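sorry to bug you again but im stuck and you know this stuff better than me. what follows is a protein written twice so to speak, once as letters and once as structure tokens for the fold. mainly i need to know what kind of three dimensional shape the backbone takes. anything you notice is useful, everything is just below:
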Amino acid sequence: MPVTSAGLLAYRPAATASDGGAVFEVLIAHMGGPFWQRKDAGAWTIPKGEYDPAEESPLQAARREFREELGIEPPDGPVIELGSFAASRKTISVFAIDGSGLEVSHPLFGEFELEWPPRSGRMASFPEVDRVEWMPPAIAAGKLTASQRPALAALAGALSGRGVS
């Protein structure tokens, strides 16, 4: 059975730069755990996680995973379906939502357990993500995993159709 995952990409308006820079920012998270600790490029993610399509819809899963990973209630409001994207052995359905006013200064990250150090027989807890930041799409593109970068282009296209670019 294919692995399905869903994520919620929050965005908010940003001041237009005089040099034509981004007019919106996205909220992405740095992956937690020892493997990602010293990495930056390609080590960030849209808040997302796996789900069982027989038990919940992709949007329900995206909202749940946002809450579980960040410890923050996802914003309310209209959702933009950005599409589904292939990522190694899974498919990620990504939705966008206006996160204007979303408070992210005190996140409470979810955790996972991992044998650490490897082959030590000791289990350790690590945060699923260890920080979250608003950033312009051009910067986020260099930080997100390659399989999630197309969601940024899909969001830019969806927002330009609404008069935001």
User: Anything to note?
Assistant: The chain has one domain: 3-160. Residues 31 and 46 are 10 Å apart (CA to CA).
